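tool_call: predict_structure(chain=1)
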Amino acid sequence: MQITITEIAPRDGWQNVNEYIPLETKLDLIDRMFAAGIQRMQAGSFVSPKAIPQMKDAKELFASVLARYPERSIFALVPNLQGARAAVECGLKEITNVISVSESHNKNNTNRTVAESMAQLAEIRETFPNLALGLDVATAFGCPFEGETSLEALMGYLAQASKVKLDSITLCDTVGVAYPAQVKRFVEAVRRELPQVSLEIHIHDTRNLGMLNTWTAVECGVTHVQTSLGGLGGCPFAPGASGNTATEDFVYLLDKEGISTGIDFDKLLAAAVQMHSVVNGNYSGHQLTITNTVC
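tool_result:
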């Protein structure tokens, strides 16, 4: 068995850092992540810099990263058609569009209704028919405004979304409210109803269930897992959201369980330590905490 780790710190982690991270620092950290064996990365997002100031250098960052690592799987998150156009102009062959199951969160996150966002998703596909298009299902498990997401609500949402040709779906625990029984039920339902679409999992660790929920998804057959170096992460438009499952923590677990990732744990941890020293954020990675305490 092999698990593909998708590193999302350059997007989900850094978007929550208030102090601007210089482009040179970002590129150095991305170099270190790739040197550790990361093969797939969500390296940023094409959003309004007024909404997410940290992403104001997205065009320059992607131009550099794509030139340095043409063989790696590198993609961006986009909230709308304008973002998709910017991503394609930078040379990206893959994007993910984010739409919430929750009407309240979608309005806070993108200033659109879910129906309006679904229409935009269809427009992105029509405009770029050959682009690898993924869907980040925000608030897949629960919403800070509307509470726990029901399986019926999720599957109804996916029935609408799957009218568009999607290459991947990522179930996102946007605010870290998921629990193992729910993860198992939702993952099994999505795999059963949409077997043709690649399924990823994206778990936040708000209630210290990040590792357990992510592992539960793997036990249910998910082979693509999104994690964030150092456990950085959160959502600026979701009260209470905290960091993601830490990449180094999950790679450590997979290594001990004999599951291949192709990632060198020591190099990955060294990258996390370096990021901790130059980026001021809310880190939740346990391996990083242990290392810093020992040092």
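agent: The longest strand covers residues 94-100. Proceeding to next step.
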